[in-house]
């Protein structure tokens, strides 16, 4: 191989032009990409670019996608270790390339050993400023928003990182259509109040105020995952909440018993298959409280509860929670929208929304948000 | 990371069930994947699979795509060296996975140092037979068939492996639609008679009878690239010839001067912009001879000349060549079909056919071939 | 012209096999088609078929579409008068043709002189039974459901029958996808409580219990438009209510003054542009009452409130109304679904949903109803 | 009905702004629309427009489509007789409407009694100039170009006018995409040399120099159908020849015996199913002669032979004929293009191309013609 002797080594702190997407700490040596859709973005000249990654995990390995000039050219598993990944080589040195390296897999609450870090860059080019896009959008959700099943054959049933995609995902598609920078806060199986299996600890609001509070283990704590999130540093124009699917699921699944306390948790069904009124009320209360919490931290954002990609049994309760919130607070900058349900034609792996379902959801959501952003 | 202690190491020669796609030599230790679309295919149980690759090049690095159960889950550059690539991990050990690892980049006649080899496998599963598909198709072509520009932004202009795709390619799409095993013989810039720039050495027929004769350098010779192709071992049902675009281009480009002999080569235009009759006749003669050569080596195949994805100025000459061939030989098992021209909506990188153009070509070609295969 | 001497004249009462779609009276001599989507359907052999229509109007002429074997072959204005319309001629006499003649225009509350009647048939064939489809669906709505603007250029602004279509309409598309017989009750500009311009008399519930009670004038009364509807004769499996768009519009338009009483009606906006709470409550009450009324008359039907094709500002109120209804009655056989909003790409004439918007709405609604019908 | 007392009666000769599409004679009192796609076009203000038609036939009735501002609003059979057809009513009188009334059915060589004439107009508006479109295109073809089967269910088998469409037709679609005025010369079953059943009199070239020479009977002769065509009055930029499908069919069908002379005609197959060389040569000669004839009459037009919508077995012969023509005449303004073959998904009634097949053909042809028109 012809060696490229012109490559220069850069610590991330050397590259002021580096743009980081997604919630993280102040640290850049190294930079931790916690959430799905988190990314580094560069405008760079030169013939060649490498990044040094550090991929750690006990169970669930991280994956990344690489976009050159907005086109995905590579998607790969990052096996354990610290090593260099070549992003491009052999290109015209005088032309500026826009490069995004995107984390394709969610923060893994189930794997305390999992972390993806970026240490350094190598290139023979020069770095240039990446402009902010006109809007900022934050997406909050569950497996749907994590892109679980958005890639892979319909027959796939394993719960593994390979079937997660941040790209074939309504979040990325909506952000692109809106010309928006965006962030994602999401966890498969979690809800506003409980997980799909009635675990009351598996809810997003509880950790929303931290950088990535749902991560566990000493390593992640040391990386700052539990630090308070600095909301002032990035105030979104829109917050999309796509939660409720697992809260709905909890009505259909067995009780969850807290292994520490022995206390039992269960969202109950009535004999006729409808939801028990008291338990739905608890969900509504949780949703209401989450809206309060979101508004506290995102003062100017339009908050839209976008729900329905895997059915919409919680929609009445969501509407009631939003009604109550708006009436009690006088806050009018909130809306609810139903996203297109997934069908046999649009389903992906693991009976989750496939790429086509994400595409339709993005179209619906984009249209809704355009109306709001262009009037505000 | 939790180590997987059950992984077993396999030389390729240990795995009788391994299916190899694409022309290559008998060697399996290692196996060389010469052409784009060449692949190894496995049916395998177990939780985890790795392959050991050996990627060599002076200039143009190989890329691969990985398909699990017919869905592309990964595409990556293979940087220089011999190392293990993890194909999957964490899967249900008792379920059989169909895995294809496909070479995404063409044989590189311009880089004598370029070779992609597969040395070994590691898995904790068992290998199972991969059935032959009902049909066999061979595709012969130029940059179109090599998938140049089938991936990447329209603005891309660099001639680099990153913009080549064996997957977003009418070859793979047609083979999938026909349920066919397939092979590809292709080279960017080359023709039936000359390259796009009048080089008479850059033609496919000259090397067709060798395994991968257009490769240069001692290494490739040692790997058996110049060995005679064993046609008996794989007799296609269909041979698709997608050549002529560069032969047409040669009329529009400057003369080529042989650096060794000083002899000049040029397909001439008349003053009115039409093709010089003598030079078109040379092309026709080359096309005629190639048909003779194809039939000699592929006795039962339907041969279809499929042309037109980047315009179709050579179509009259192709029809004349095929006419002459059919008349002189009495061989009726030949046809000509025009593929859909690439438009501003379907163009990809480097002003070559994009994914949409490949898709339309595949639809047209598939329909044509279904008619032929179902009647033969 | 060669005369067809074999044509026989049939009063509709002679043709027991005639299937009538849409609410109407018992009369068949003549038969009145009141609503859009109302139709006569025939299975008939023979070479030729004519129907005798009687088209009356002061202002708004009726239009019909003709479907042969489920394909629209003709659409035409019916100018004033009683005359024969040829449906087909020259066909193979021994083959059975399925024929539907569909009223393309809504009941015209603004034109007391408007009526479309069918008097008789002529054919040289024999009539055969038309089987009922497996499901029955009733659609209740406004201009959207009347197909206003579903045909015609986007530039069209005239309020004329030509721009109404019962065929390029989510009602027909949904019914076809579900293999359902269907009926439509709809009126442009009307709502659950008031019209778009605050007229409290222009609401569907007020007339729902009559055959076609919103028609005015002595002629229509004599035709039985004000007769009580015989609900027992046709009990739907699904009732789709697509109302609310005009009730929402009433908040944005000037007050309506009753010309007889001088009383003023107005759904009020608050200073901040939100809906006045008391007035929204009135709408909710009207929606609630309509659900009571619908259930009284349609005992077994799933009732779905399907709303959103021209925005969805009333959705919270609709959800509240349905919540209250379900809670107070214990009736669980009700749902709410948001239909895809109309976009610049899917808009039709008169800034109403175009064919593409109707198509998307039908896909969403069909998917929802399949889930319900296959579980009930 | 409220009478419109402002309607004024106009002979066609009174309306200088009337634009006539399609070959016809000089007569405007009445105007005869001979060919499919022939039309009258008007720009008109006013609330209302009527045309007086005179529809004559022994067997095959004419159909028309009405377009308002480029959208089809009506399609109807014209039963026998002379009567007024209302085109629109109730429109805004001050707005200009573009109106086209298009003959949907071909000239009927099999029905000497068939003629469609337009006698007069009635309107309360004013007529305005219709600008010529930037290009002129002439289409010459057979049943494909006549739109046979482009409307109707796939099960339809009757040969009747109802299944013909000038609108769901690649001719209209291509013309619209190119912004071209256009004419159609076409006849179901006919070819360059013979009909599908070997009748040597059923060929287009024989009648090409007359206005509509293939019509028979005294009436049509009196209407000027056999008059020489005045080519100077309308010189196209492009002539599209879509012939060959029936010439190909003649090889597969029984001989035709001239009832007058007893002479037998048959395009022969060889024992191996290939075409007899002498008979193909006759076809080539006929195609060659037709090109000579077309060029004589259309001096500046690009002539494109566009073939393949129902298979393309004659393509080699067409290429040979065009080759010979170009070589012998030096005329370079000629091309050949293969149109997309009809598939099980795009087929229409009577196993002819359906709307989707016409759409694809139009896309291919439009792309080809844009390249030519923008370079000439």
UniProtKB/TrEMBL annotation, chains A, B, C, D:
GO terms for molecular function: carboxylic ester hydrolase activity. InterPro entries: CtCE2-like_dom, PCW_deacetylase/CE, SGNH_hydro, SGNH_hydro_sf. Residues 139-327 form the SGNH hydrolase-type esterase domain. Pfam families: Lipase_GDSL_2 (PF13472). PANTHER family: ESTERASE, SGNH HYDROLASE-TYPE (PTHR37834:SF2), GDSL-LIKE LIPASE/ACYLHYDROLASE DOMAIN PROTEIN (AFU_ORTHOLOGUE AFUA_2G00620) (PTHR37834). This is Lysophospholipase L1-like esterase. It comes from Paenibacillus amylolyticus.
